[in-house]
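Lab notebook, bench 4. Still working through the backlog of constructs that have no structural model yet. Next entry is a single chain of 95 residues. Request: give me the structure tokens for it.
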Amino acid sequence: SVYSEYYKTNNAGEVQALCTMIREENYKLTKIHALAPRYPRDCKGELYDLSADPGEHRNLYNDPAYAEVKLHLLETLSDREALTVDPLPLAISPW
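Model written out:
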């Protein structure tokens, strides 16, 4: 699988957007952790079946037919997030 993070703060260090993504052979799941500008407030994530929808036009995140796939990807994503936690002290620089 491929794991990716998107993290954006403003000059005051406040989180403006935080998303994580996991991609396996046929599926891609993006989890919205903090409000990202392109997502509506009620959006928790995106799930795409890349074999049927390579252009990512149909979000299956809330589709009950994909509940098992979603659970598997959320578990995998959670494991990857835990492995990448930065053990260092918090940065004090504005960036």
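Notes after review: The longest helix spans residues 67-83. Residues 21 and 30 are 4 Å apart (CA to CA). Flag for follow-up if needed.
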